Amino acid sequence: MIHAVNIRSRNPLILRRALMSAAGVLITGVGIGFLKRAMFGVDPAQCYVNGLANVIPIRYGTLYALVNLVQLAAVLLMDRHYIGLGTLMNLFLLGYAIEFFESELTLLFGAPGLALRLLFLAAGVVILCAAAALYFSADMGVSTYDAISLYIARRNPSIFGRHLPYKAWRMLTDAICVITGVALGARAGLGTVITALFMGPLISFFRRYTDPMARGEIRRA
Predict the structure, then answer these.
(1) Do the domain assignments include residue 219?
(2) How many domains is the chain partitioned into structurally?
(3) Does 10 fall in a domain?
(4) Can you name the residues that pair with 158 across neighbouring β-strands?
(5) Which domain holds residue 137?
(6) pTM of the model
C-alpha cells in the first residue's frame, strides 16, 4: 500500500519533468534561432554543426539529428548514465526547432539592421539560458554534446600529471568545436564569446526558479 501511494505521488512530478524537458528543448530552438538571426555567432556546439552544414548538403534539422546520433553511439559506449528521455528529445527535436524558428524570424523581420541584431543577440542569450535551466532541472538526461565533457571529467584523466576540473574539459571541447566549425566556414563572433562566458552564471540564476518547479515546490517571495 505504501509503495502504491509513492508511485501515485511521484507520477505528477515525472510528467512535470517530462514537460519541462520538452519545453526546454523547444525554447532552446527559439533562443538559437534568435542567435542565428543576430549573425554575431552562435554557441560552440551550434558553431560546429553550422560548419558541417556548409559541407554536407542536407537540411539542418536532419544534419543535427545525424551528428547527435553519432555522438549518442559514443556516449552509449562510454556511459549510459547520462542518457534519458531529455537526451532523445534534444536529439530528434532541437535541430528542427532551430530550423523552424530561424525561418519564422526571417519571414517576420527579413534582414535585420544592427540595432535589431543586437536585440536578437540579447534575447537569444537570455532565452537560451532560461531554456537550459528548464532542461537541466528536469534531470531527464543531457544532450549528447554535454555528456561527452561530463564523461571525460568523471573519468578524471591527467594531463602532464594534473587532473583538470569539468570546466576545463568543457572549455576544451567548446574550443575544438569552434575551431572545427570556423575551419568549415561557420561564423564565430561576439555571440560565441558571450555564450561561452555568461551562460553558466545565467543558467545558475534561472535554476533558482526551475529547480523548485521540477520538485513540485511552490516558491514564495
Answers:
(1) no
(2) 1
(3) yes
(4) 163
(5) 2-214
(6) 0.80
